[in-house]
Design goal:
The complex is a heterodimer. By secondary structure, chain A is mainly alpha-helical. Chain A contains 18 helices and four strands. Chain A has a domain of 227 residues: Serine Threonine Protein Phosphatase 5, Tetratricopeptide repeat (Alpha Horseshoe). Chain A is 53% helix and 3% strand. In chain A, the strands form two sheets. In chain A, strands 1-3 form a two-stranded antiparallel ribbon. In chain A, strands 2-4 form a two-stranded antiparallel sheet. The longest helix of chain A has 27 residues. Chain B is mainly β. Chain B has three domains: 97 residues, Carboxypeptidase-like, regulatory domain (Immunoglobulin-like), CATH 2.60.40.1120; 684 residues, Maltoporin, Chain A; 64 residues, no CATH class. Chain B has eleven helices and 61 strands. In chain B, helix 6 packs antiparallel against helix 7. The chains are: A mainly alpha, B mainly beta. Chains A and B meet through helix 1, helix 2, helix 3, helix 4 and helix 9 of A and helix 1, strand 30, strand 31, strand 35 and strand 37 of B.
């Protein structure tokens, strides 16, 4: 009897074993995390994320280094006096590569699978924009070898800035223009899911051409002919404020602009810089709209704001900037044309007033500008007038102010006190941001600069 | 599942019917101990001259079928055997007397199996109920601190309901839980800690570092229901619990009634007062402001400034003006040379000390227990009311427990137990959060009085930086509190059938289910969410556990006995977290989701299923040699199908050599050597085998919790999950080898248990950080190898035993060395904390601190900047501290004289660095007491550096002689601000060693002479104190702190954590 019992028990135990080693079905699948989503559900995420990354941390660091903002507390106070650690950059890098560009890259891959060139073109413009902003901040960055973790590549190599400027960025934009111009897009075309242009492919083509112009122009220290090449692109670029490449945020508590949100979540970390505050003349109505009262200091502004309202735009590339590029190129090209330069400068300033205040350049302001231009006797003095105007007109537009300073040395900023530290040994205004700590620790063999420092100039800055 | 249950029941009944056998007559009774009348479980009851017999149950009851003229032999290790002739009696109650030499204890090992500690080949340690009650802790996990060798307990803070983190023999897993399994009466329960942070992903990614202090769910267990507790440490002990006990197990036996005993009613009451036990030292000399042009200048909201710092002039140099100010009821503050100045000197405030109040704890516990001939019962009700040391914080717990057991058929006992708990309270925000209490409180300048109002009539905030920049702590406690309300039922049914005297079948099914309803609030005008926020979060968790066991206890020959258990286990866990995030409140203080202008909903699900089959065989040769072999196979749902089955074995041997060699001197009367080897597997976290997409939230580190939270702007949107799935994961394995011995000297008056263990975890599953340029941020891999080795020792000594006077000492010693032997290929480290300061790095101890440090030359000299005389920071970061203690030592002293007993636990922790991020910020802000030396002239020791053309700095051999004013109050560089906001990490790592009086209790049992005049059978009065003193060099709050509680593997992390408490109390225990 005992033997029978034991046998039965053993049989039962092994039966359990057999039964229970069966599959668990989808027990290990998180129902909130779908394994696939449509391109129309990815594009808004990519657009919002890249606008947030450029219009948030990038605008802020550019503004802090060019004294448009002053850091008064926390890490912003450190960054303002050029104490920028590699660890401070992890966030910006993650926001760009992970939150923005990987999502955009997945759209590109899906568009290939689904034969949707219109989606692909839009995503390629965004990719070019993101990579270009990264290289303007960090120098050499990964692109060709990036976004391949799902294929087992966890340590992407870097593309040199020269490669990025010469072939990769223009290549992406040219390809984007071809795709956006495709007569059909079988796998679908962006429409209401496109938060930037609402599916207007012509507008995207203009944006692509405008970016090409910007990055051609910015390489001028390495390529003296770039001014003429950039000017030759004028017929195809954004032709009015209405065509601006910008992302509009909303008034809902969950859809606000990054600068506004920073003023709310981190009131007291920055305030408007004294240098920037002082460049506005009394007859410049943009001053009130840009300086934002005490918004960043106290979380509540006492005047309306243009760039830091909850529904303010994040400008990715503007007609205003186009006119300033045109102006500088006309002035600085080998066959300098100061008259055309002044005309483009006037048009850029007027477009800025129009965009921000809804009216053109006030007469007094124009008279003052004319006088300053007339007083500028050398090309370099005229360049200073242009860049000083651009410093105001392109405020809060990605890294432009910092890039212009690095390219031209204008506006003539004085360094902040106590700017000497282990990363910035000469105390001058930084020429670059340090590579993020995660890259130094996880991808050291590929990292172009192994010890963080803020003064090593990169390709277009040499 | 349903089929499975049906199947299991069928098995039990089927086996039962086969095994029912006719017998002559039945004798039953109860076995108790002679010295204290306690019920004795596990006593062998054997018919003399046969192998037929049984053992007593948990309550000392037995039942045996006997022929005529039978003689029963009662025996138990540690007690003198007795032979009793049955005669015509049908009830035989026996009292057994201790055999000093054989003194031993019964322990509950895995799967509810009771064993004699003498027969084990591995280390195991018991904690008695009174030890838990003496601690005065409401969280019984905290009550284990200092009481068990090999165990480290860290309370997260002194906030009511705060979680405590427990680790047995160190951290073995990199990413997975390192917490042990909690088992109550054989049924594993949930001990999760769920965070409510500002967003669902921050709950996970930021480990709730900026939210409130949450509870670990074992806090729901009423400590007064616990009869005894056993800690299982190594795999040889835990193999039957399988992977869930990969980090050890805390096995709790609750109180139960006993058969044939009259109803015993017990009531206890406790009341204690909590005070804050330690705060960071703050300066009260210098006012809010900054050095302007070399002059410390007063800046405050009164001067239109949002100045955060206190680098201003001496407060005593400031005067009140005859001019009112909304910021100070005493008037506007001006420099003494201001024409408006009066002679009234400005006040200096100790905001931090003034903020804390006395917390209170009141506990009531009432229980009834007893039994009839066939049944036992235990009922209890307990209520805890706690108010915290911070205004408006509270915690409460109501617990009902009923356990009844009845012999419903012959040899067939059914037990039913149910425990209902309602718990929760009001919790306050802490940590890295501008609405955190401590952040706003400690940063407050001493020239501002937080308590003079926190809200202006227009609804804006009164805080030291003006409006809603850092919340006034009074605003935060009154407006930003979180409530939680947990309703939990833990219950089990157990059917036990003694088929034969040596054969038992048991089936047990347990359910632990709770709902936790939380409301997280940020009022309008709060600094972190100025538009106001309400989050409704509902956590529903259900654990179902089923065990089917067959147990054999049989004497094979005179000298050889066998015990075997074969079992099957099924476990299912289901957690649903529904969150409704509402932002933009319609009206201040209106914290219903209807108040929100933007609402986002999310649903989180975690599921896990596990099947296990296990078996264990123990052979006992002549009570001299004990050999055990065990094994278990698990099938886990969280691993890929091809890898989801894994087997792990364990074996142990124990040898009582005093028995073998006949050693029995007074000096050395007992010795057992033991050795074990065992493995235990562990599975992966939920859903890391596949990749997917998450609903998108667009934001950065500066704008959390807000940003673009989809659906937004009229669209829904997704982005790829941060973690790339890995479909090739397999189970991780920990292999432990353990040696030890149990010894007794001086007739058992001195006992020593000492164990050495060496545990290596291989293929540890971890989420490695990958460069974000690769597209993703993390990926789960199987690659790490961790090693823990250590020595545990428990010593007990009866120092004095003279008539009514007794003095006992009990010592628990723990020394663990932890090394991360290997991480993944190309992965030198993993960050485990939200700020990137704590890491797991190859070749280093678990969780080393990593951060910024001074630049040093090859001789270790600091390199000084020749421009300003300040030490350079090293541009690359490195290891700056180790949070693992060198050793832990708990020393319990108990002195008793007649009914009076004084007991205290001295708790010593040597080593273990704590990251004092709080200090880094407070010094930067000029409010830390260290900054009182701001005007002193110093020369930093070191050598001068030289800047190279490429911007790098090299050390020269020139010693530094540059004298500077340390705080830069002459307009020079301020040392305290030179390294940024949280300061140099190297400067914020401090030694967390302590010596503390963990608990003290003085109790008095009323003598029988007095009791006879009272309607009570026993009365005990006690005075208790917790954390009566604390000696530590740590400059922050009590170093027993941890920002993220038990929800992560982060250790020793202090960033504006809520402080800890000490308490004084009285208690009264009455038995009717």
């Amino acid at each position: 009897m005992k033997n029978i019992l034991f046998k039965k028990v053993l049989i039962l135990v092994f039966t359990f074993t057999f039964i229970t080693s069966c599959e668990f079905g989808d027990t290990n699948v998180d129902p909130a995390v779908p394994t696939d989503v449509a391109m129309s559900a990815l594009l808004p995420s990519g657009e919002a994320a890249i606008s947030w990354a450029i219009g948030g941390e990038m605008v802020r660091i550019s503004g802090l280094l060019t004294q448009q903002f002053e850091g008064i507390n926390a890490q912003q106070a450190d960054n303002y006096r050029y104490l920028i650690r590699d660890a401070d950059m992890d966030g910006m890098w993650q926001r760009m590569y992970f939150n923005s560009l990987n999502t955009i890259n997945i759209v590109i891959k899906k568009a290939d699978e689904l034969n949707a060139p219109h989606y692909k073109g839009v995503a390629q413009v965004l990719m070019a924009l993101g990579i270009a902003n990264l290289t303007d901040a960090f120098g050499d960055v990964p692109y060709t070898d990036a976004f391949e973790a799902d294929e087992g590549n966890f340590t992407p190599t870097y593309d040199t800035q020269q490669q990025l400027y010469s072939t990769i960025i223009p290549g992406l934009l040219d390809d984007a223009i071809v795709n956006l111009s495709a007569s059909t897009s079988a796998g679908g075309s962006p429409g209401g899911d496109d938060l930037i242009y609402g599916g207007d492919l012509t507008a995207w083509i203009d944006a692509a051409n405008s970016l090409k112009m910007r990055y051609t122009f910015q390489s001028v220290k390495q390529n003296a002919g770039a001014y003429d090449v950039a000017l030759a692109m004028m017929p195809n670029v954004i032709a009015s404020n209405a065509g601006d490449f910008e992302m509009l945020f909303g008034n809902g508590a969950n859809e606000t602009n990054p600068q506004y949100q920073f003023s709310q979540s981190r009131a007291g970390n920055i305030k408007m810089g004294d240098y920037f505050t002082n460049v506005f003349s009394a007859n410049d109505p943009r001053g009130e709209l840009f300086l934002d009262g005490q918004l960043f200091e106290e979380g509540e502004g006492d005047s309306p704001s243009y760039y830091a309202n909850s529904n303010s735009p994040v400008v990715l590339m503007s007609y205003v900037e186009i006119k300033f590029i045109e102006s500088e190129a006309q002035l600085m090209k080998s066959a300098s044309d100061p008259i055309a330069a002044k005309a483009a400068l006037d048009a850029g300033v007027a477009a800025s007033f129009q965009k921000v205040t809804g009216a053109g350049t006030p007469a007094a302001y124009q008279a003052d500008l004319d006088a300053r231009w007339a007083a500028a006797t050398t090309a370099n003095d005229q360049l200073e007038v242009i860049i000083n105007e651009k410093y105001i007109a392109c405020f809060s537009q990605s890294l432009i102010a910092w890039t212009d300073y690095r390219r031209t040395g204008f506006p003539a900023l004085t360094v902040v006190p106590n700017g000497v530290n282990a990363f910035n040994a000469n105390g001058e205004i930084p020429r670059r941001l340090p590579y993020p700590q995660e890259e130094r620790l996880l991808n050291l063999s590929n990292l172009p600069i192994q010890t963080p420092n803020l003064q090593t100039r990169f390709w277009w800055d040499q | 599942m349903k089929n499975f249950l049906r199947f299991s029941f069928a098995l039990v009944f089927l086996s039962g019917s086969i095994l029912t056998m006719a017998q002559d007559r039945v004798v039953s009774g109860k076995v108790t101990a002679l010295d204290d009348n306690s019920e004795l479980p596990g006593v062998s009851v054997l018919l003399k001259g046969t192998t037929t017999g049984t053992i007593t149950d948990v309550n000392g009851n037995y039942k045996i079928t006997v022929p005529d003229n039978a003689v029963i032999v009662f025996s138990f290790v540690g007690l003198k055997s007795q032979e009793v002739s049955v005669g015509s009696r049908s009830t035989i109650d026996i009292q057994m007397e201790s055999d000093i030499k054989q003194l031993s204890e019964v322990v509950v090992t895995a799967a509810g199996i009771e064993a004699n500690k003498r027969e084990l080949g591995y280390s195991i340690q018991n904690v008695q109920a009174d030890e838990i009650m003496k601690s005065g802790e409401n969280n019984f996990v905290s009550a284990l601190s200092g009481k068990v060798a090999g165990v480290q307990v860290t309370s997260s803070s002194g906030t009511p309901g705060a979680a405590a983190q427990i680790r047995i023999r160190g951290n073995k897993s990199v990413q997975g839980s390192n917490g042990p399994l909690f088992v109550i009466d054989g049924v594993p329960i949930d001990n999760s800690t769920f965070n409510t942070a500002d967003s669902p992903e921050d709950d996970v990614a930021n480990l709730g570092s900026g939210g409130v202090t949450n509870s670990n769910r074992a806090i729901d267990i009423n400590p007064s229901d616990v009869a005894s507790l056993t800690v299982l440490k190594g795999p040889a002990a835990t193999v039957l619990y399988g992977i869930r006990a990969a980090n050890g197990a805390v096995v709790i036996t609750t109180k139960k009634g006993s058969r044939n005993s009259a109803a015993k009613i017990k009531y206890s009451f406790g009341y204690s007062i909590d005070k804050v036990n330690k705060l960071p030292d703050l300066q009260t000399t210098y006012a809010q402001g900054a050095v302007v042009g070399g002059v410390p200048t007063f800046q405050s909201p009164m001067t239109g400034s949002t100045q955060s710092q206190s680098w201003g002039p001496q407060i005593s140099s400031l005067r009140y003006a005859n001019e009112p100010s909304i910021w100070d009821p005493n008037g506007l503050i001006v420099p003494s040379n201001d024409p408006r100045a009066t002679s009234r000197v400005a006040n200096s405030y100790t905001n931090a000390e003034d903020f804390f109040e006395n917390g209170t704890n009141a506990t009531h516990n009432l229980s009834v227990q007893g039994g009839t001939e066939k049944a036992t019962y235990f009922f209890s009700v307990g209520r805890l009311d706690q108010t915290g040391i911070m205004p408006n914080s509270s915690y409460g717990r109501t617990s009902f427990r009923a356990t009844t057991s009845a012999e419903i058929f012959k040899n067939f006992t059914a037990t039913l137990s149910a425990n209902y708990i309602n718990s929760g309270g009001k919790r306050l925000q802490n940590g890295s959060n501008t609405s955190g209490v401590m952040l706003g409180l400690l940063r407050t300048t001493p020239s501002f009085d937080n308590s003079a109002g926190y809200l202006f009539e227009d609804g804006s905030q009164r805080a030291y930086r003006g409006g809603s920049i850092y919340d006034n702590p009074y605003f935060t406690v009154n407006k930003n509190f979180t409530t939680d309300d947990v309703n939990r039922v833990i219950g089990y049914t157990q059917l036990s059938y003694d088929a034969l005297p040596w054969l038992n079948f048991t089936y047990r099914i347990g359910v632990d289910t709770y709902g936790d309803d939380r409301i997280f609030r940020n009022d309008v005008a709060s600094s972190s969410v100025p538009v106001g926020q309400v989050i409704n979060q509902t956590i529903r968790s259900t654990d179902l556990n089923s065990d089917l066991l067959m147990t054999i206890n049989k004497d094979l020959t005179d000298k050889l006995s066998l015990s075997t258990t074969i079992g099957h286990n099924y476990y299912n866990k289901d957690v649903h977290i529904n969150r409704i995030d509402g932002q933009g409140l319609a009206s201040p203080g209106f914290f219903n989701i209807a108040s929100a202008t933007a609402v986002n909903v999310s649903e989180g699900v975690t599921k896990r299923q596990l099947y296990g089959v296990y078996g264990t065989v123990t052979l006992n040769y002549n009570s001299e040699i004990f050999i055990n072999i065990s094994g278990r196979n698990d099938w886990s749902s969280t691993l890929p199908e091809e890898n989801n089955s894994f087997f792990y074995p364990a074996t142990s041997i124990g040898w009582d050599f005093t028995q073998t060699f006949g050693i029995n001197s007074t000096l050395f009367n007992y010795g057992k050597l033991r050795a074990s080897w065992g493995q235990v597997g562990n599975d992966a976290p939920f859903a890391v085998t596949n990749s997917g997409f998450n609903q998108s939230r667009v934001r950065d580190g500066w704008t959390t919790p807000q940003g673009v939270i989809f659906p937004a702007l009229g669209l829904n949107a997704f982005n790829p999950n941060t973690t790339l799935g890995n479909s090739e994961l397999k189970a991780e394995t920990t292999t432990t080898i353990e040696f030890g011995g149990d010894f007794q000297f001086l007739n058992g008056r001195i006992g020593l248990d000492v164990t050495y263990f060496d545990a290596t975890t291989t293929d540890a599953i971890l989420n490695v950080t990958i460069p974000s340029a690769s597209g993703w941020q993390q990926r789960a891999v199987n690659s790490a190898e961790l090693n823990n080795k250590g020595i545990e020792a428990a010593i007990s000594a009866n120092v004095i035993s003279s008539g009514d006077f007794n003095y006992d000492i009990g010592v628990n010693f723990t020394r663990i060395r932890n090394t991360v032997e290997k991480l993944a290929e190309g992965i030198p480290f993993i960050t485990i904390d939200p700020f990137g300061t704590q890491r797991i790095a190859e070749g280093e101890p678990f969780g080393i601190f990593f951060g910024s440090r001074f630049l040093r030359d090859s001789n270790g000299n600091m390199v000084i900047n020749p421009a300003d005389g300040i030490p350079y920071e090293d541009p690359t970061q490195g290891i700056v501290g180790d949070p693992n203690p060198d050793f832990l030592l708990g020393i319990r002293n108990t002195v008793s004289y007649k009914g009076l007993s004084l007991s205290f636990l001295l708790d010593i922790r040597q080593g273990g660095d704590v990251y004092n991020g709080t200090k880094g910020v407070l010094n930067n802000f000029g409010v830390g007491a260290e900054t009182l030396d701001r005007n002193e002239t110093v020369v930093f020791p070191g050598v001068l550096g030289q800047v190279q053309t490429d911007g790098s700095v090299v050390a020269t051999e020139t010693p530094n002689t540059i004298a500077i004013v340390k705080g830069g109050t002459d307009g020079g560089t301020n040392f305290y601000q030179n390294y940024g906001f949280v300061n140099l990490t190297e400067l914020t790592i401090e030694d967390g060693s302590w010596v503390r009086m963990r608990d003290v209790s003085l109790t008095y049992d009323l003598p029988t002479s007095m009791l006879s005049k009272l309607p009570f059978s026993a009365v005990n009065i006690g005075f208790t104190a917790r954390n009566l003193f604390l000696k530590t060099d740590y400059t922050g709050i009590d170093p027993e702190t941890n920002l993220t509680g038990d929800s992560s593997n982060v250790i020793g992390y202090d960033y504006f954590n809520n402080p800890n408490t000490k308490s004084y109390g009285v208690n009264l225990n009455i038995t009717f």
